[in-house]
Design brief:
Blueprint: H1 2-20, H2 23-29, E1 50-55, E2 58-59, E3 63-64, H3 71-80, E4 85-89, H4 101-106, E5 113-116, H5 122-131, E6 135-139, H6 145-157, E7 161-166, H7 169-177, E8 182-186, H8 198-204, E9 212-216, H9 222-231, E10 235-238, H10 240-244, H11 248-256
This protein binds the ligand O=C(O)c1ccccc1NCC(=O)[C@H](O)[C@H](O)COP(=O)(O)O.
């Protein structure tokens, strides 16, 4: 499965990163980090769904999505359209992301930033902090429950929020047992790459109302947004639709029904 390939590569990559910048160097520079932005507050909207707009050059399922890719310009367009948060794919091999994008984007927006990567080692959590993230993604399917609890604890100690991603009921139970507060339901089946909003429809019934719920992947139309709103999600994470849009402003208007 694709996640196994990504995790194998990630382990090798993190090993190299640790050799170049040891963890004690990272920890000692954390006190110089800029103030965090409140990722959770992005979902406390009174009306309509919050949008986490993603900066995504490529993906394992689609290859290159955007050719003339300029993360700074995309972030400016997201900010002009008042995206409640911005997600930045930093994974380099499969998504053509880069760690440097976080800082580039941070300088042109005041929106809270989610680092979208494949976190399998505490090193990456400390690294996310100094790179300029306000929140990190933790994917339940690539972590043990013990790791999930430990990683959330480290993130909280650094003032980072966590978006906990689940694909099915078993993963959701782990997220709830780990007391995760922001839960992302990923609509993409990672075996077939097909997306279906019925994943959100099926899982949301089992999530207490006190949690913040984000629906991720395969959200392309106003109809999709309206449907997810009826289900009671708090926010949506959208990448490819924005990347393929000829005009990002128009795409926001369409999603918001303006
Ligand atoms: O996008 C993929 O093909 C993919 C494959 C394997 C693991 C993760 C993948 N995507 C990460 C994401 O979760 C999406 O980038 C995000 O939810 C936005 O999805 P979309 O709006 O469909 O681009």
């Amino acid at each position: 499965m694709i996640l196994d390939k990504i995790v194998t590569y990630k382990k090798m990559k993190v090993k190299k990163e640790k050799e170049i910048t040891p963890i004690n160097h990272i920890i000692s520079s954390i006190e110089n980090c800029k103030e965090r932005r409140n990722f959770k507050r992005a979902f406390e909207k009174v009306k309509g769904l919050s949008i986490i707009a993603e900066i995504k050059k490529a993906s394992p399922s689609k290859g290159i999505i955007k050719n003339n890719f300029n993360p700074m310009e995309i972030a400016i367009a997201y900010t002009e359209n008042k995206a409640e948060a911005i997600s930045i794919l930093t994974e380099d091999k499969f998504f053509r992301g880069d760690n440097s994008y976080l800082n580039v984007v941070r300088n042109v927006t005041s929106a809270p930033l989610l680092r979208k990567d494949f976190i399998i080692d505490p090193y990456q959590i400390y690294q996310s902090k100094i790179l300029g993230a306000d929140a990190i993604l933790l994917i339940v399917s690539i972590l043990s429950k013990t790791q999930l609890i430990e990683f959330q604890k480290i993130a909280r100690s650094l003032g980072l929020f966590c978006l906990i991603e689940v694909h099915n009921r078993a993963e959701l139970e782990i997220a709830l047992e780990a007391d995760s507060e922001i839960i992302g339901i990923n609509n993409r089946n990672l075996k077939t790459f097909k997306t279906s909003l019925s994943t959100t429809e099926n899982l949301i019934k089992h999530i207490p109302k006190s949690k913040i719920i984000i629906s991720e992947s395969g959200i392309n139309t106003r109809q999709n947004i309206k449907f997810l709103e009826t289900l009671g999600v708090n926010g949506v994470l959208i990448g490819e639709s924005f990347m393929r849009a000829s005009c990002i402003n128009d795409k926001f208007k369409e999603f918001r029904g303006e």
